[in-house]
Amino acid sequence: MSEKRLSLSPARFLSARRRHRSAGLVVLLFGLLAVGTAYSAFAPDNAVADNSAQSQQIEEGKKLFAVGCASCHGLNAEGGSNGEGDLAGPSLIGVGAAAVDFQVGTGRMPAMQPGAQIPRKAPTYTPEEIEALAAYVASLAPGPAVPASESYDISKATDEQVTRGGELFRTNCTACHNFAGKGGALPNGRYAPSLMGVDPKHIYEAMLTGPQQMPVFSDQVLQPDDKRDIIAYLNALQEQKDPGGFGLGRLGPVSEGLWGWLVGIGLLVGVAVWIGAKGVKAKGAKAE
Amino acid sequence: MATKELPPPVAWVDDRLGIAKLGKKNLRKVFPDHWSFMLGEIALYSFIILLLTGVFLTFWFKPSMAEIEYQGSYSLLKGLHMSEAYASTLDISFDVRGGLLMRQIHHWAAILFVASMMVHLLRIFFTGAFRKPRELNWVIGFGMLFLGIIEGFLGYGLPDDLLSGTGLRITQGMIQASPVIGTWLSFFIFGGEFPGDDMVSRFFTVHVLLIPGLILALVTAHLILVVYHKHTQYPGPGRTEKNVVGYPLMPVYMAKAGGFFFVVFGITALMGALLQINPVWLYGPYNPAEVTAGSQPDWYMGWLEGSVRLMPGFESEFWGVTLSWNLLIPALIVPPAFVTLVALYPFIEQWITGDKREHHLLDRPRNMPTRTGIGAAFITFYGLLWIGGGNDLIATHFGVSLNSVTWFLRFAVFFGPVLAFWVTRRIAISLQRADNDRLLHGLETGVIMRSPDGEYTERHAPISPYEAYELTARDRILPLEVGPETDENGVRAPRRGLTKFRAALSRFYFADSVQKPTAAEIEQAHAHGHGHDDHEELGHSGEVPGVTGTVETDDETAREQISKH
User: Fold this and answer.
1) Per-residue DSSP letter, B520
2) Beta-carbon neighbour count of residue A155 at 10 Å?
3) How far apart are the C-alpha atoms of A185 and B374, rounded to whole Å?
4) Contacts with A275 from chain B: Cβ below 8 Å
5) Which residues pair with B56 in a beta bridge?
């Protein structure tokens, strides 16, 4: 304090004040350094290992991203254009790990070609690579994380929950995905894909992130329990054998009409021709 | 009398009901034989199957919209609130023994019923079997088709599942689109706001009582008229406008028709057993807040659906009243107009051709190129609207854009029928020319002859007299003539404009169609034809074998015969 008072004397005012300021900054930096060192000294060792493993994963993801994704999404996932001013790939900042896990895990990304909609195909990357990519994209900005496996575990779903899932499915999903989850058409070449044979995790992530044309059903709209029940209903639909015989694709009356005409009327007209021909044969006198 | 020869039980019945005389006359009734005459039978038999399975279904179906909690055995819907109608449909499907099979047979039979009526209609149309004296039977048949479609649609609406509810909602929208009376009409039909509590019970009564009764009455009238008019037959040796060549009802058609009934029942039962139809449990109970992709009507309403799907969203407002052209045109103007046109076609054609003769010999489609072309245009129009009704599935299954499908169809419904008409008529005319070639020059044998002076000719073999008869057993067709503008007193003919219009239509109708050769032409062709060896057998005597009685000498005679009546 005495020094400060000294510094206030007019003769040394300027230099004293400047020194005082620098000193504060040094103290601050010193303090931070001390706390940081103390933290690293006191924190458990495995946390250090994790941290480095995670950063290593992010680093690995970044490399994979630069090779497989950056041509469309930009080197820093900021989104990219195709050189003619059109968007080639949207920005991935803030989409979260769940979006990456869905898109790459269902094989939609990397896309083979741009189009109205990117189709599902066999995944290109291994699960570890997908995790690395997801970790990298998640490290850019916060976004929905890959759901924990308990959240889509349907093995313990009760009948009531499955029925409830059916109601939620009919209210929120069937308009695009069809009553049996078989998918349906959307405008301009886009479509709601079939939900049959899709990993429960991916269905969960799709609801969470709203890929392509799909709206986002965030946890405030469809709560985690709702999502799980919907997945349970879809699973029940998929496992259900059609009690009425061959299900005709579960596509509704169009395929029924097609079968009615091609098989039903086709067979009956065939039989009519056969019975008619029988008569001609019996007559025996018909020319040619 | 004949009673003496009858076995005792028949004699007993005959003494009381007089069946011997009736049976003697009708059991020996002759019907001509052809597979295409059995298409109507499919409809009749499907109707019988519908009555049988329908009665079974009414034993368990509860036509009520009272809300209950489902506690049946289909676990995915257990505990949900739904109408009694839907719950009882689920019960029929899962808890009534044989119920699902009966439901599925009923539904497949409905699909086949309407489809076979339509196939039968096409046969009647393309062979001209609707001509005098059968115009009214055409109208009766058309009435049954119309009622069958309404009946099917009401049945589709009964289970009160999400699909049927959505279908009824669309129908209600169409009803509401009627100018001025729309809202009141909708309230009248549904007993208030849609969906209300009345629709299932109302539709049920109409579905199981009113329309089946009407169809049954019309079936009876239809068959009585077939017996009264006698069945038409295809032209052939020995077949004229005045006879029917075929087999007696007993035993040939008893066996054939009886057997065919069991085949139809068998195929329908197989379809009901093997092919799942209308899985109501997958749709869930109807809730106006829900909808599903793949919401389509059964096929026979598909063209109406397509018509609505293709229409751009036009709307206009007059003095505070909104007119929804997007529903008015595709649902309330085009379909009734099309249906009326088809129903009245026999009268329209008769007016254009001026043909007042009775016809019991059928036309081969090629011999009426314009009619056949019109038929092809109708089928194309209908088929394109049909495709429009399933445009979403076309888009997903063929990987094309829904918008492209819709836009293509918007134009195709106008150009497609014209193209189909033109192509079909040209093909028919070409086939007529080919027939005349066979008639005049015979068959190409592939044998090349060289004459002494070096000329190469192909040897033609004459066609059989049977075939020659078949090819020539048709009428000469001639356009109407307008007649003089004024009569001998200088008075202008009445309704001159209409007559001119009619004559123009008639010219269009018969334009470019090929007349069959006259007897003289055939004789001349055979005399000077390439088949030097063969014409000797045919003879020059002016009478061409197999071409008897149906070849009019010239246009004047033909015209006289057409307008005689």
Assistant:
1) H
2) 6
3) 34
4) 35, 38, 256, 259-260, 263
5) none
DSSP 3-state assignment of B524?
A: helix
SS3 per residue for B386-435:
HHHHCHHHHHHHHCCCHHHHHHHHHHHHHHHHHHHHHHHHHHHHHHHHHH
CA-nearest of B514, B479, B513, B482 to B496 is B482
Hey, what's the torsion of the CAs at A158, A161, A162, A165, to 10 degrees?
A: -160
Contacts of A175 in chain B (CB under 8 A): 290-293
Partners of B247 on chain A (C-beta within 8 Å) are: 279
What is the spatial distance between Cα B442 and Cα B468, in angstroms, rounded to a whole number?
10
- Cβ-Cβ contacts under 8 Å between A and B: the total is 218
Question: Please, what sign has the CA dihedral across residues A150, A154, A155, A157?
Answer: positive
CB contact under 8 A, A254 and B289: no
Contacts of A255 in chain B (CB under 8 A): 393
**Mutate which of B86, B256, B401 to test chain A, going by most A C-beta atoms within 10 A?**
B401
The tens digit of pLDDT for each residue in B254-282 reads 888 999 999 999 999 999 999 999 999 99
Q: Taking CB atoms and an 8 Å limit, are B111 and A257 in contact across chains?
A: yes
Q: What is the mean pLDDT of chain B?
A: 89
CA of A162: which chain B residue's CA is closest?
A: B76
Is A287 or A60 the better-scoring residue by pLDDT? Answer: A60
What is the pTM assigned to this prediction?
A: 0.87
Helix (H) and strand (E) counts in chain A: 12, 4
Retrieve residue A279's tokens. Answer: 């008569």
Q: Copy the structure tokens of residue B421.
A: 């008409």
pLDDT tier at A4, thresholds 50, 70, 90? very low
C-alpha triplet A247, A250, A255: angle, nearest 5°: 90
| 3 state DSSP class of B318 | strand
CA distance B298 to A258: 10
H or E stretch at B139: helix B135-157
* Separation CA A211–CA A229 (nearest Å): 20
8 Å CB contact between B170 and B288:
no
Q: Do B279 and A116 touch (CB under 8 A)?
A: no
**Record: contact A251-B278, CB cut-off 8 A:** no
Q: Distance between CA B461 and CA B371 in Å, rounded?
A: 33
- What is the C-alpha end-to-end distance of chain A, expressed in Å? 129
Contact B298 A250 (CB under 8 A): no
* Alpha-carbon B29 to chain mean position: 26
Q: Are B405 and A191 in contact (CB under 8 A)?
A: no
Give the chain A residue nearest B166 (alpha carbons).
Answer: A175
ipTM of the modeled complex: 0.89
